[in-house]
């Protein structure tokens, strides 16, 4: 039975976590501003301010008294939900306390410096300039990985992967990705060959950015984005940030191509709906956060790939597209479906179709795994990148750093271990939508008519409202009846593109 004395430590932990959540809100908005609106000349001052803020958050999160409270709370009479929350509090504390404060600050400063310089180095194809800052990021990330590894018993890379994907490791990933590599190249070849007979008419533009914005806002509204608790802006790399009560989403626009910006909107809205529907009663607690980055990506890819690029969804927004850009041949529904499901190996990950996308992720995973484990040096990445691009996608990136190693933002701040989440997310999404179709056999007919409620109600009940109350494997088994199974991704791709 709960009483004031018995739950005292747990309640004290809740207060500390609520404080951390409130301060994280400010940090998230500061980061959003840095990537969207901050004047270029303000970066040095902002980086220093954010580094100090990071240290303060680290101090708050690693207060020694939390350890005592966790030990005391574990003896208290808590219900199952509170036990799950306590488990996540303990995990969060252990992740935070492993790394010393001076390393946290040094990594923050190095990351801000590298990321800011990257914004100019990327378009200038300046690998040499980037490497100067990046080697510091790698050095500090290896130091962090070594410290985490000695504490957890995991390999250095697995200790970083665990931050984003608790319960996942390279042993499991190598098996999963080896399976994908065994069938993906052949599948790509078969689809590309099949699509050679398509008479696709590509839209030529220009497409007014204002029209693209209007279309994006309409689609966001249809997909259920809560504009009272969020907004969408522009950044060089689309993202969804903020906190559940204050979502900050971004996209990018290209007057010559509305296809990517629209699907970027759909993708980020998937992230946003997940955040906006996390369990409100635990919003300031670790159990009220997203389960993992793979689960987070599964929501954005559920929106973009399972629904967004499918014919039923395109039928549901066809009138909006025609209203924006005109009722011409290239915007007929059959042609739109071909445009949004065109498969072609390309250099850029964020622009890749869903069939070739896993190859981009596997390439990055294999590089960062070896980089953090000390089997590869930063200076040698472009050569290895090129070798893998030729092997996986038949493309040459020699000397082309802008479309090669410099294209992503993730490594600039040391976010090693993040990339696998994208393809894990695609697998989770395919598995989830398979379960939706079993429960609602007519779901595609409903989507075609603009009614997405069946899919979204399933997500809300099985994923969104569960937050981190369950471990990842338990979450997926409860939702779909089995653990992660890559076969659902293969079945989805084969069905959509070859049948």
Task: Describe the structure concisely.
This protein is mainly alpha-helical.
Secondary structure elements and pairings:
Layout: H1 8-36, H2 43-61, H3 64-73, H4 80-97, H5 101-121, H6 127-152, H7 156-164, H8 170-195, H9 209-222, E1 230-234, E2 240-243, E3 246-251, H10 258-276, H11 293-308, H12 311-316, H13 318-325, H14 333-340, H15 357-372, H16 381-393, H17 420-439, H18 443-448, H19 453-462, H20 472-480, H21 487-498
Parallel strand pairs: 1-3
Antiparallel strand pairs: 2-3
Helix pairs in contact: 1-2, 1-3, 2-5, 3-4, 5-6, 6-7, 8-15, 8-21, 9-10, 9-13, 10-11, 11-17, 15-16, 17-21
Note down, in words, how this protein is organized.
With 499 residues, the chain is mostly helical. The chain has 2 domains: 8-163; 164-499, Neurolysin, domain 3, CATH 1.10.1370. Helix content is 63%, strand content 3%. It is built from 21 helices and 3 strands. The protein has helices spanning 8-36, 43-61, 64-73, 80-97, 101-121, 127-152, 156-164, 170-195, 209-222, 258-276, 293-308, 311-316, 318-325, 333-340, 357-372, 381-393, 420-439, 443-448, 453-462, 472-480, 487-498, and strands spanning 230-234, 240-243, 246-251. Strands 1-3-2 form a 3-stranded mixed β-sheet, with helices on both faces. Strand 2 and strand 3 form a beta hairpin. Helix 6 (127-152) packs across helix 7 (156-164) and helix 10 (258-276) packs across helix 11 (293-308). The longest helix is centred in the first third of the chain and has 29 residues, at 8-36. 39% of the residues are buried. Residues 1-6 have low confidence and may be disordered.
């Amino acid at each position: 039975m709960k009483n004031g004395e018995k739950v005292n430590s747990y309640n004290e932990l809740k207060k500390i976590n609520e404080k951390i959540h409130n301060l994280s809100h400010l940090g998230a908005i500061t980061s959003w501003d840095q990537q969207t609106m901050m004047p270029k000349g303000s970066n040095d001052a902002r980086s220093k301010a954010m580094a100090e803020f990071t240290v303060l958050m680290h101090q708050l999160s690693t207060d020694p008294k939390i350890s005592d409270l966790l030990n005391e709370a574990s003896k208290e009479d808590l219900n199952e939900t509170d036990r799950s929350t306590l488990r996540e509090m303990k995990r969060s504390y252990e992740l935070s306390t492993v790394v010393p404060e001076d390393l946290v600050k040094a990594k923050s400063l190095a990351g801000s410096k590298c990321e800011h310089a990257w914004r100019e180095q990327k378009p200038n194809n300046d690998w040499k300039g980037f490497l100067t800052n990046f080697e510091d990021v790698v050095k500090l990330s290896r130091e962090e990985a070594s410290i985490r590894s000695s504490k957890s018993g995991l390999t250095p890379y697995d200790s970083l992967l665990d931050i984003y994907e608790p319960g996942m490791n390279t042993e499991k990933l190598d098996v999963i990705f080896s399976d994908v590599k065994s069938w993906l190249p052949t599948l790509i070849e078969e689809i590309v060959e099949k699509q050679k007979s398509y008479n696709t008419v590509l839209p030529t533009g220009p497409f007014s950015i204002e029209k693209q914005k209007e279309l994006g806002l309409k689609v966001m509204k249809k997909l259920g984005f809560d504009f009272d608790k969020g907004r969408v802006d522009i950044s060089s790399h689309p993202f969804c940030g903020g906190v559940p009560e204050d979502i900050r989403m971004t996209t990018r626009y290209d007057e010559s191509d509305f296809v990517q910006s629209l699907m970027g909107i759909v993708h980020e809205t998937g992230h946003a709906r997940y955040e906006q529907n996390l369990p409100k009663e635990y919003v300031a607690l670790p159990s009220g956060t997203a389960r993992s980055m793979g689960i987070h990506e599964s929501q954005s890819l559920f929106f973009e790939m399972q629904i967004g690029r499918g014919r039923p969804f395109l039928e549901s927004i066809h009138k909006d597209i025609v209203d924006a850009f005109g009722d011409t041949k290239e915007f007929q529904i059959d042609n739109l479906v071909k445009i949004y499901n065109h498969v072609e190996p390309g250099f850029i990950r964020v622009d890749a179709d869903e069939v070739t996308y896993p190859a981009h992720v596997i390439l990055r995973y294999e590089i960062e795994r070896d980089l953090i484990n000390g089997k590869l040096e930063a200076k040698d990445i472009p050569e290895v990148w090129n070798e893998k691009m030729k092997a996986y996608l038949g493309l040459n990136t020699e000397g082309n750093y802008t479309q090669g190693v410099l294209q992503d933002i993730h490594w600039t701040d040391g976010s090693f271990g993040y990339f696998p989440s994208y393809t894990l997310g695609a697998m989770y999404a395919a598995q989830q939508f398979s379960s939706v179709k079993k429960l609602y056999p007519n779901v595609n007919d409903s989507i075609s008519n603009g009614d997405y409620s069946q899919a979204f109600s399933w997500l809300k009940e099985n994923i969104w409202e569960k937050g981190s109350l369950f471990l990842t494997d338990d979450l997926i088994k409860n939702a779909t009846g089995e653990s992660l199974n890559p076969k659902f991704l293969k079945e989805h791709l084969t069905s959509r593109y070859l049948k």
